[in-house]
Design goal:
The chain is mainly α. The chain is built from seven helices and no strands. It is extended, with a radius of gyration of 22 Å.
Length: about 150
């Protein structure tokens, strides 16, 4: 594992007008454009994204990988596995009464509890009366609603 602080650049440096695409299943030499997402243009490949956008999209993944690698080197393999399991358990259940998609417990485990995102303020659940009751939602999740 690497101790990379900044994500690697994954932007393509060359653009080819003849892309390597999979062929049709029956004839290997004929490219099947409809199965591969439609015909692509060179302009879309060149003007699609800025190289910095690729790095910014992978920023949090790289920081988490660096943190887990440091924990693995310091405490052994059990610590990153335990933290990964905690994040998965917290991400599994998101009650609607507590904000739905925004999960405070997961934010604390990922060290994002001090930052405010757009989704934290505008959750899309303005009408609280339409939300299910917390206990009935928990009973449904735990299969306790008889």
């Amino acid at each position: 594992m690497s101790l990379r602080i900044i994500p690697a650049s994954s932007a393509s440096t060359t653009v080819s007008s003849v892309a390597q695409r999979k062929g049709a299943p029956s004839i290997s030499s004929v490219p099947d454009a409809m199965r591969n997402g439609g015909p692509g243009s060179v302009a879309a490949d060149v003007n699609n994204r800025h190289p910095l956008q690729d790095r910014l999209s992978k920023w949090e993944e790289t920081q988490m990988a660096l943190k887990m690698e440091g924990l693995r080197r310091l405490y052994g393999a059990a610590e990153p596995i335990r933290r990964g399991m905690e994040v998965m358990m917290c991400a599994d259940y998101k009650p609607a009464q507590l904000g739905g998609p925004s999960n405070l417990h997961k934010d604390i485990l990922e060290n994002r509890d001090c930052s405010i995102q757009w989704e934290d303020i505008y959750t899309g659940t303005d009408n609280v009366f339409d939300l299910p009751e917390f206990h009935s939602e928990l009973e449904t999740k735990c299969r306790m609603n008889w």
